[in-house]
Amino acid sequence: MSRLFLRTLRDDPADAEVPSHRLLVRAGYVRRAAPGIYSWLPLGWRVLRNVEKIVREEMDAIGAQEVHFPAILPREPYEATGRWTEYGDNLFRLKDRKGGDYLLGPTHEEMFTLLVKDLYASYKDLPLNLYQIQTKYRDEQRPRAGILRGREFVMKDSYSFDVDDAGLEAAYELHRQAYIKIFTRLGLDYVIVKATSGAMGGSASEEFLAIAENGEDTFVRSPGGYAANVEAVSTVVPEAIPYEDAPAAHAEQTPDTPTIATLVDHLNEAFPRDDRAWTAADTLKNVLVMLRNPDGTREPLAIGLPGDRDVDEKRLAAQVEPAEVEPFEAKDFAAYPDLKKGYIGPRVLGLENATGIRYLTDPRVVAGSRWVTGADVDGSHVIDLTAERDFVCDGRIEAAEVRAGDPAPDGSGPLELARGIEMGHIFQLGRKYAEALDLKVLDENGKLVTVTMGSYGVGVSRAVAAVVENAHDELGIIWPKELSPFDVHLVIAGKDDAIKAAAEQLAQELDDAGISVLLDDRPKVSPGVKFKDAELIGVPTIVVAGRGIADGVVEVKNRATGDKQDVPLADLVEHLA
Amino acid sequence: MSRLFLRTLRDDPADAEVPSHRLLVRAGYVRRAAPGIYSWLPLGWRVLRNVEKIVREEMDAIGAQEVHFPAILPREPYEATGRWTEYGDNLFRLKDRKGGDYLLGPTHEEMFTLLVKDLYASYKDLPLNLYQIQTKYRDEQRPRAGILRGREFVMKDSYSFDVDDAGLEAAYELHRQAYIKIFTRLGLDYVIVKATSGAMGGSASEEFLAIAENGEDTFVRSPGGYAANVEAVSTVVPEAIPYEDAPAAHAEQTPDTPTIATLVDHLNEAFPRDDRAWTAADTLKNVLVMLRNPDGTREPLAIGLPGDRDVDEKRLAAQVEPAEVEPFEAKDFAAYPDLKKGYIGPRVLGLENATGIRYLTDPRVVAGSRWVTGADVDGSHVIDLTAERDFVCDGRIEAAEVRAGDPAPDGSGPLELARGIEMGHIFQLGRKYAEALDLKVLDENGKLVTVTMGSYGVGVSRAVAAVVENAHDELGIIWPKELSPFDVHLVIAGKDDAIKAAAEQLAQELDDAGISVLLDDRPKVSPGVKFKDAELIGVPTIVVAGRGIADGVVEVKNRATGDKQDVPLADLVEHLA
Questions:
Q1: Do the Cβ atoms of A326 and A313 come closer than 8 Å?
Q2: Which H/E stretch holds residue B77?
Q3: A144 has which bridge partners?
Q4: What does pTM read for this prediction?
Q5: Which of A214, A447, B39, B86 could form a disulfide with A18 if both were Cys (CB 3.0 to 4.6 A apart)?
Q6: Over the stretch B392-415, which tens digit does the pLDDT of each residue have?
Q7: Is the per-residue pLDDT at B201 higher than 80?
């Protein structure tokens, strides 16, 4: 440590919100170079390479073959699949000196597809699994949490190529098993959840989430074993309600009730129900947003949902991808005079109605359900407005928040919500990319068939942070063995030359035995500071060479449990091995 | 090989000019993704990682510490050192979604300087050597020769930080010795030559060139041990000549002599010398070029040199960097009516003369040297125009070609010329970057001193191609042991099940013994095709399991020498180990 390029910091970096960001910067693993862009210092680089090693071993074990693509990619293939545009602002684009268009690869489906097309032609060449561990680029709108969500990051991405659906399913399962091994070896507390496939296209897909209170992803799980990313949860749809005998809708004066809360209060005061009080769930809230398409065009969208639920931004975003959601602003309202803010009802919404704004409703708005909703007149609402009879929508949307206690869609009980960090994603892409780029092989009968593909990712640099989120305490990081930058942190605690000499010899013996050692040989640094740094850095085994040396013993401390034990010098190598 | 992602090609790729490009594509090591941008297939990736391993081991051995910087870098530090502009079109520049300026790092002096400034503050922290093995980007005007000169490539770059010049020299020497080990282990036939420091700034610098007839770099060497990149050769300057008694200059009619050859013929016919014939070396040729500065401005430059030598484009380019050399075109002549094309003389050149064009002369144009040169009138030349007496220049320039037989500048004998591939470059940068970015530390006396730096590069991906340039024959590649993708290429030659079974068992035994095997188990591929592929792929040891299996022997072939030997199955592991 007297020569290691390292300075531990006493203070948290000003921009750090989560423990992994704070600790990785304070303990000298990474350093910020630009927003969302980090440099790896010697300790951090060792950990990253340990993660790479685990991922590489498990990918090799399932017969995947390692290749390496460039990061700078030509526009054409991404144009062919539509992703040049669909990625929108998330893509780093650039021009070369001749004006040619390039991008920095956020993921490589197109390039892998073209490479296989380039070399392979027959069903006999398949199945094929290729992977790379490579630096990726995404121009995130809000890079955050250090390396947890950066703009330049390391990923393992792999791609499977099969001649039929059964082959794809087998490749998907192989990857699933490999990922279970990877995340187990990383020491992560993780969960596998159903996922939406987002901009990738394709069908079946699951995410591996590290369970972490600071995670950006919300997931649900049920006592019966259902687990899904919140974006992928489908609402349990109530049965339709017969409405032949339903009362007619009637508009009422509801002055000064532009919010659900004020409306419900007013209803209970002015129009009390016989059976029970009005609640927010009786109201139909109509929310307007503006969608910005990747080509820059904008279109409004109206969402109708029970008034007791908010729109979940992420669920909405997943539904409208690749368009991005923007607020519906004052100038937008001005363009639609039929919209009475606070009193918007479904009768002016929808492609066939006055505003012509597309109107999608929550799946709970079933035929025959009765609602209190805006009357499209300031200070007035309609009561008993009945779905299908009094209004229609242009389609359904899964955009309402999911709540703890909501039923699991597979009937496996009430959902609970938790947060996680997306660490891996496995996709059955199907034939989307092969079709767009014309990847076909001859089948057994000499007929050309389109190849079916899978795409599988692991966040390699993100894993470094996710592990820290899972494994730290108030003193610092606690690395799992396989990830730790060193096997042993050996502290020289004492100014005695004999202690120093014994420690140096010990370090050499451990090194010779294949046990890597971080030796804290800093002169003029107190034992207290050295211990603090050792706790912060987080090597799982801390050996203290201090006064005990005179008696031929060192103290061996378990960083995770704090357990201490005196071990004779002669036994140390064996003890640690 | 029945499952390896590989297709060897019978035909050379259409765009391949050099053997390494042809062979690496044909043998399935790399595949072009875009101009100057390549993907690494499984075999190539293994070789590249072998090169990385050698480089990493030798850098670790000199105590350099591995870090890893981003490739996408903010503009500001490069602005501070002037390189944002100086790099001109060679830099890939891009904007993020917020309009911020970024570049793709071609080399990382600025970032390393800032990182050290960020963490270190005292002379006690130094010396420090940091390195990374990382993907770099340069938007080459003419990417060529496959991975030999690409636009995305892998480099090892390292940086030394010292408090004084002695420290820098020691760090430089450490790197020099490490590089000698690296290039020896790579099996390269290389030479260390003096170099110019180009856009990097700084003083002492040497290049490691792989000797290769297809190399882009020309270097010289003398019997006495002088060696230099041709750009770095300094001309041996003749002694000045007394000119008190020199004849006066006299203009003569020399119709239709716009070239040196026609002029010399005319001189010998119309103005024969008594002592000897006129030669091109008696004439002073004035060459005009246009310089384009990185900021886009253009300025003319006139170069005066003996008529028997041409301007060497690369030597000129090295002298005028970061400006780029462009032709002096008809429109440029039109802008300077004093320039009479084919009859341009030094009396209209120079900042103080009619054209105001900067005029630099070859070092051979010493005071008192007498020349035949243009009289600035169509069809007329001046004879006995004497340097210093009749004309002056604005300075000297080393832009004339170097020729075999020219004297070495250190008096070590006549130079010979050869070609090479730049594989490594070591620089004593000095304080240029530390000054620009204000990297100072406190010295022993508590005074702030500017750190002095070195910068050191190895072309890692380029090494893969350079080794092939050095080691191939008409059949294919011949890998040195440390680089080969596998230790042994084991060919199943025969349809007999017993042969296949024996070969598979053998492969397992070798693998268990730590000898990596590429097993050619392709069914329905003839032994002849398998042998051809083995020669092309270039694993140094080829083992053939054929009819000999019945007698308990395999054939072991040395790819380089062609030597064959029968080895009993039981002895094979020991034989190969």
A1: no
A2: helix B75-80
A3: A149
A4: 0.89
A5: A214
A6: 999 999 999 999 999 999 999 999
A7: no
pLDDT at B200 > cutoff 50: no
Pick from A164, A229, A244, A241: nearest CA to A191: A229
Q: Is the dihedral of CA B497, B499, B500, B502 positive or negative?
A: positive
Task: Tell me the mean pLDDT in the region B544-550.
Answer: 93
- Whether residue B287 lies within 8 A of chain A, CB to CB, comes out as no
* Whether residue B494 has pLDDT greater than 70: yes
pLDDT of residue A204: 84
Q: Which of B4, B67, B90 sits opposite A40 (nearest CB)?
A: B67
ipTM of the complex: 0.88
Residue of chain A minimizing CA distance to B92:
A96
Mutate to test the interface with A, among B39, B46, B60, B113 (most CBs of A within 10 A): B39
**Residue A405 CB neighbours (<10 A):** 10
Which of B325, B324, B315, B287 has the alpha carbon at shortest distance from B303? B287
Residues A488/A545, Cβ–Cβ less than 8 Å = no
3-state secondary structure of B337: coil
pLDDT tens column, B514-541 = 999 999 999 999 999 999 999 999 999 9
pLDDT at A198 (0 to 100)? 53
| pLDDT for position B343 | 93
> Of B37, B46, B48, which to mutate for an interface test with A (greatest number of A Cβ within 10 Å)?
B37
Cα distance between residue B35 and residue A512, in whole Å: 48
A141 closest CB neighbour out of B6, B97, B141: B97
| Per-residue confidence (pLDDT) for residue A175, from 0 to 100 | 97
* Mean pLDDT rounded to a whole number for chain B: 94
**CA–CA gap between residue A530 and residue A526 (Å, rounded):** 6
The full set of domains in chain A, from first to last, is 46-233+416-464 (3.30.930.10), 250-396 (3.90.960.10), 488-576 (3.40.50.800)
d(CA B58, CA B62): 7
DSSP A204: -
Cα of B333 to nearest chain A Cα, Å: 28
Pairing of strands B358-361, B395-396: parallel
Angle at B459 between CA B456 and CA B462, to 5 degrees: 170
User: Which token pair is A475?
Assistant: 């003193």
CB contact under 8 A, A141 and B74: no
pLDDT for residue B321: 85
- Nearest Cα of chain B lies from the Cα of A99 at a distance, in angstroms, of 11
The list of chain A residues with pLDDT below 70 reads: 197-203
* pLDDT, position A197: 59
- Kindly determine whether residue B120 and residue A7, on different chains, have CB atoms separated by under 8 Å: yes
Return the pLDDT at A100: 94
Amino acid at B501: A
**Distinct helix (H) and strand (E) counts, chain B:** 14, 31
Query: Across the interface, which of B7, B41, B70 has its CB nearest the CB of A38?
Result: B70
Region B444-451: what's the mean pLDDT? Answer: 95
Query: Can you give the pLDDT at residue A144?
Result: 81
Helix (H) or strand (E) holding A265: helix A260-270
Q: Is A136 exposed, middle or buried (0-12, 13-18, 19+ CB in 10 A)?
A: buried
Residues of chain B with C-beta less than 8 angstroms from the C-beta of A137? 72
Contact call for A65 and B73, based on CB within 8 A: no
Measured between beta carbons, the chain A residues lying within 8 angstroms of B102 are 34
- The pLDDT assigned to A45 comes to 98
Q: Contact at 8 Å (CB) between A168 and A202?
A: no
Q: Inspect the interface and report whether the beta carbons of A70 and B38 lie closer than 8 Å.
A: yes
Q: pLDDT-derived band of residue B207, with 50, 70 and 90 as boundaries?
A: very high
Q: Which residue has the tokens 């709970």?
A: A364
> Nearest-CA residue of chain A relative to B37?
A70
The tokens describing A276, both together, are: 């029970």
- Laid out side by side, the sheet with B370-377 consists of B250-253, B380-386, B370-377
